[in-house]
Amino acid sequence: MPYYRVVGEVPRKRHIQFRRPDGGLYAEELMGEEGFSSDASLLYHRHLPTAIVKAEAVTATADTRLEPNLPLSPRHFRTQALSSAGDLVSGRILLAGNADVRLSYATSDRPSELYRNSMGDECVYVQAGRVRFESTYGVIEAGPGDYVVIPTGTIHRWVPDGQVNVLAIEASGHIRPPRRYLSQYGQFLEHAPYSERDLRAPTEPLTVEGAEVPVLVRTRGGLTRLVYRDHPFDVVGWDGCLYPYAFNIDDFEPLVKRTHAPPPVHQTFEGPGFVVCSFCPRPLDFHPDSVPIPYNHHNVDSDEFMFYVGGDYSARKGSGIDVGSISLHPAGFTHGPQPGAVEAVIDAVAKGVTTTSEMAVMVDTFRPLDLGQGALSCEDPGYAWTWSR
Q1: Does the CA dihedral 17-21-24-26 come out positive or negative?
Q2: Averaged pLDDT, 245-261
Q3: The pTM of the whole model exceeds 0.90
Q4: Is 266 among the annotated ligand-binding positions?
Q5: Cis peptide upstream of residue 71 (ω within 30 degrees of 0)
Q6: Which of 260, 266, 287, 298 is an active site residue?
Q7: Where on this chain does homogentisate bind (predicted)?
Q8: b vs e for 104-116, b when ≥16 Cβ sit within 10 Å of the residue's Cβ?
Q9: 4 annotated as belonging to a binding site for a ligand
Q10: What pLDDT was estimated at residue 84?
Q11: Rounded Cα–Cα distance for residues 82 and 84 (Å)
């Protein structure tokens, strides 16, 4: 993260003796990115974070098969038809992916087991429901519209309060705010659509007692379940610039022009080989002759994966797109408003409509997205031809 935080108890200087009330030493754990040449945080544990008593390989049960998008076609997937068999980790249904990112949907009301993704950061968007995110850094209460960004290697679990629906974005590297929003020293600039005040991170330590505690670990070699001698949630304090945080889509401040602005104005995060954008309610374009709706466009270097999470997406009326839908518009295909949508919006503006209520989460990838079996199982087969009706 681009700014420094302190939570709980830490000593005056790093890497000096820090003693427990009984006189023993707290155990340091330095969590650092890019060979400790980028962001890092220092955590202080009651017990050794290295003490494991058992390790066993785990056979993956999720269907991770991916197929090329052939024949090349725009796609529409209805997540409303999907139901998970597990929790918000084990029940993830793979929709699409490539070497840079995996995009999965999950819906569950059960707590997950402790989990560590050691392949890359995750950004989990909460579409519906409320959930408690617990980690070695502390607790984040998350609800509808929250992005929860989880650094690589963070031990955590999800505890839903009833049914929760999420889109999980699993990166092969790190997910960060776009560099153009930050000063050379990491502060959000005034032109950025959000700021440090909009980010919610743990505010106090979470300590849990326990012995022989299993943690599911995902690495490039597969899945392993490590059993820790003591519960990993035993951190009394930490400081640094690396930690999980939440950002709510309602806190994104849209950037507007007199005429229609392209998707980069909606960018929220960047990852290796992809970007994440937030489409939020905003004033319609206000030039007197504007066409306040997306023009036909062809992003020649990207596949566009769009999750419709709320509001009324006027540009897609008549296509079958609804809240909970996901569209995939691949490079090699020009897409845009449905027939008649341009005229309808111009007429609506003439009658006094001044804002749009659309809400969507978009992931643009710079390598082609292959299709997961989950997406193919809920596909609308007639979507590709809706522009010709």
Answers
A1: negative
A2: 94
A3: yes
A4: no
A5: yes
A6: 260
A7: 313, 335
A8: bbbbbeeebebbb
A9: no
A10: 85
A11: 7
